Amino acid sequence: MRAGEGQLYVKEQDYFHLRFEDLAYVNLSGTQEHLKHLNQGTISLWFCPSQEPPLGHQILLYIGNPHTPDPTTLQFGIAPWTQGKGEPALFYSINRNGAHYSPSAPLTHNHFIPHHWYHLAISVSAQSLSMYVDGVEFPTIGEGHRPLSKSFIKDLWEGNQAAPDRFFLGRRDVPAGRDMSMDGALDELAIFNTPLDREQIKAIYQAGRETDLRTIYTTELEAYWKLGEQGEFPTVHSVGRQDLVGEFIGSQHPSPLQKETRQSLMFQDGQGQETPITQQKGTTQAGQLWGQKGENLYFNEGKVGIGTEDPEARLHVAGLARLHQYQGARWVWVATGNGPNEEVHFGKITSRVLRFQKYQAETALLIRYSDTFRAKGISASQGRWTIKIDDLDAKPAPIYKDYYAFIDHGQFTEHHFPGSIQGTAHYIGSGEHEISIWVGDTSNTAGERDRYTGWSNSTWMIEVEEVMLHQLPSP
């Protein structure tokens, strides 16, 4: 990108989002008929929780008729995955004529940090359903007997049952006192008439909340609510192919419209089209203007300044602007110790733990664990030591190592195996996480199960490195 093709400058803007609390919601009932032609598509939105984990149920979008014999519902939101610990899951559910399909994407306990923005999306086609958080696809677990080819908005009108009669953002309306809402903020909610792929979802996340999706999509954008726009509030209009009008229901004192003032590094082309490059900004020691978005650094390699002859002149970039992939830092966390010797035959080894803060949602984790492993017995013995993240197996495959001791003539023996276990874990969101070590049976449960870890207080170490993915080539 050359300066002759446009200009780089910093622009300060006010951005608004819509806060939901005390059972507030947006009522779009009566407009759902305009979406009944969608047999596939994508739902995309930005969500900011306001409470500490566990979040419980957060109903983000609901279309349905709860008063039919078999309630007609389509809902998208966050729900507890395990009741005991309250781990959240991104969930989607459709029910019509007694046939339902309810896929979920389990997440970690502290995946959602209060007052942080997260991009959530679900893409549905006749062949596949994918869920995303911050541009990263998470594996889903499906429940129900409804075919995937009948799992989007159009299918709420199949059969002879009463059609959906309500359409809410931030609330679920069902009988028997099971009404649910959300507690947090929403922004930039979009319904597309096509299933977006992984790269398209990632591009929306990387573009950020400050980017108007109409600059990226035209005919694909069926309905798009820029929920922070003041306009005729509390009336809420969508843009795109459909003008769907709703009303914010709830307290307006103080105003649920919340304002943020941010500075963005902008590029304006020769036709006057503005493109936000980043929300973050700074200057290098050499005085270069730069910005950062995700993994990428944006530099200009020339002089930057405001003309002294005309103080009102636009901030001008003279020179070349280049995109660099930041490769200068490694994010590594280490936990180590001398013992204790742990006589744990099954379960979690509580002294072998590493807690750390993962910075990027789309990175992978390279994990290495070194220790002394001991299998003991007077016959064949075995044990499996497993690395877990937040008490769950790594994805896409568990990380473990098996140790066996084969003893002849029935003699009592002890085998010590100094060694390392290493592997890569994907689909781990940003935020705080815990690496822990677990011990148990191998796939062959025969033999004795007398296991020790860290015999004679030997030295152990857990190391995790955040590994950048999708690296760009050098310019």
Written overview of the protein:
By secondary structure, the chain is mostly beta strands. The protein has 1 helix and 36 strands. Strands 1, 3, 9, 10, 11, 15, 16, 19 and 20 form a 9-stranded antiparallel sheet that branches. The longest helix has 10 residues.
Describe the secondary-structure layout.
Elements: E1 6-20, E2 25-27, E3 41-49, E4 58-65, E5 72-80, E6 88-96, E7 99-101, E8 104-106, E9 118-124, E10 129-133, E11 136-138, E12 166-169, E13 171-172, E14 180-181, E15 184-192, H1 198-207, E16 221-225, E17 235-237, E18 245-249, E19 257-269, E20 274-278, E21 282-283, E22 289-293, E23 296-300, E24 303-305, E25 316-318, E26 321-325, E27 331-338, E28 347-358, E29 364-377, E30 381-389, E31 392-393, E32 399-405, E33 413-425, E34 431-440, E35 450-453, E36 459-467
Antiparallel strand pairs: 1-15, 1-19, 2-12, 2-18, 3-9, 3-15, 4-5, 4-12, 5-6, 6-7, 6-8, 9-10, 10-11, 13-14, 15-16, 17-18, 19-20, 21-22, 22-23, 23-26, 24-25, 27-36, 28-34, 29-33, 29-35, 29-36, 30-31, 30-32, 30-34
